[in-house]
Amino acid sequence: MQLKGKIAIVTGGSDGIGRHICLKLAAQGCRMAILGRNQGRLDAVVAETLALGAGEARAYSVDLTDSEALDAAAKAILDDFGGVDILINNAGVWHKTGPLDSISADMLLTTVQTNLTSVMQFTRHMLPALRDGDEAVVLNVVSKSGVVAQAGQSVYTATKYGVRGFTEVLKQDEAENGVRVAGLYQSGTNTGMFAKAGEEVPNRIFTEPDDLADVVVFMLSRPPKIWLHDVRVEL
After folding, report:
1. pLDDT tens digits for range 49-84
2. Fold observed for domain 7-233
3. pTM confidence score
4. For residue 123, which phi and psi values (nearest 5 degrees)?
5. Where are the domains of the chain?
6. Is 91 in contact with 73 (CB distance < 8 Å)?
7. How far is CA 161 from the centre of its chain?
């Protein structure tokens, strides 16, 4: 896919992996729709993407656990851009590791709604527009936890296994519709996700988000007859 001029939507684009993906796609000349919760951080990323060469960039502040707000954001993006070529479902939250009964009910619901339900709901909104394009991509940034079960991650891993299953079925469903679907299964990444959940981990040994964003651009920019539908990034 030639990325210049393509309309790319990135969820969780205000920081971490999502921010770096936005910057890399902007440098390729994409038109960017960036979703996140913090308006100030979103505005900063929009400014960065425009400075790097994005054809256009708009911010959409939305709580992904709010179904009605997510619906409204999807409609606003399609109204503003008139379509979509690339959907990158990247947003996610982490719960502190521990036995299932140590995870609060609120955290359990937030994790499921952010990591799994919103991915399916938002993709559902975007599919008709994606099918209308000449070439289109859905890329789900999933996590190694969608492949490997690890102690203390019961809810987080359940959501990631769910996204993996969703990704695999979506590939089959959209095979004849011109929408290519892929999953990226990365190991730990040096972002603030763990700290936000009160978890102390040795981030410095993890994959750098800037490097992971390079992988995303590589996946998206393959020639028409090559598609990397399942990419696993290890330390």
Report:
1. 999 999 999 999 999 999 999 999 999 999 999 999
2. Rossmann fold (3.40.50)
3. 0.94
4. -60, -40
5. 7-233
6. no
7. 15
